[in-house]
Amino acid sequence: MPKRVVRTVLFSVLLALMGIVILFVALKDKLLLPASNLWTKSSAPSSAVTSGTASEEEAAVDAFEPKISVPMGEAVTVYDLLFTVHDFMTTKQYDGSFSITDMIKNYNCSEDGSFSNEYNYFITNLTVENPTDQDIEYYLNDFEFHCFDQNGKKVSPSIDEVYSYDKNKKEFIPGKKDYFRHVFSAHSEETFHLVSLITDERLKKIAHIHFIVSQGGYTSHGIDEAARAIILK
Question: Where are the beta strands (DSSP E) in the chain?
Answer without folding.
Answer: 68-71, 75-78, 81-91, 119-130, 136-139, 144-148, 154-155, 181-184, 188-199, 208-213, 218-219, 222-223, 228-231
